[in-house]
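User: I'm new to structure prediction. If I give you an amino acid sequence, what do you actually give back? Let's try with this one:
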Amino acid sequence: MKLHGYFRSSASYRVRIALNLKGLSAEHLPHHLRKGEQRDPGYLAINPQGLVPTLQDDRGTILTQSLAIIEWLDEIHPTPPLLPKDPLRRAHVRAFAQVIACDTHPVQNLKVLARLRELGLPEEQVMGWAAWANREGLSACETLIAGEAGPFCFGAAPTIADLCLVPQLANARRFGVDLAAYPRLLGAEAAAKNLKAFADAAPERQPDAE
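Assistant: Good question. You get back a string of structure tokens that encode the predicted 3D arrangement of the chain. For your 210 residues, that looks like this:
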């Protein structure tokens, strides 16, 4: 398999964790987002959105969107499972993951922040926007799992919720968000970071890290 990504991309980070948890290897092909390499014609032919990650399986089949990639990996390599068997529990886990992947991360990603700068917003306001987006999403997530047993987001083992949470907390720190208000999320993050699969997927451990 080949994983097109970028070391600091939250979405790529999620997929790296999933691959590690499943014990799967992939050739990592970096695309430097700040240099615009994701918009090169060769990459756009693979992923017309010009976003990362993109996963190519051994047959060359192309998959995009991190949650779709992770669920595909979970279906073809079901151990360890990243979603509960119970349909209602599975829906709760997906909802948590989507708060981050669909409603929080997209409005504070590099593409959006670049657009705000193009519109003339000063850097202080751009960073404030990103911090606000993170606080909004993380506050909802803290409430969603307040009654869940730990140590992970939804019990004794990591799920796609944790795969989304850990990279998003890293983002929040970069934007100066005070995370003290989210003790339940921090507890889940600590449990996840104790696992080698999460530690090895961290941005600073990637070969393209700057």
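You can read the tokens as a compact description of the fold. Here is one thing that stands out. The first strand starts at residue 2 and ends at 5.
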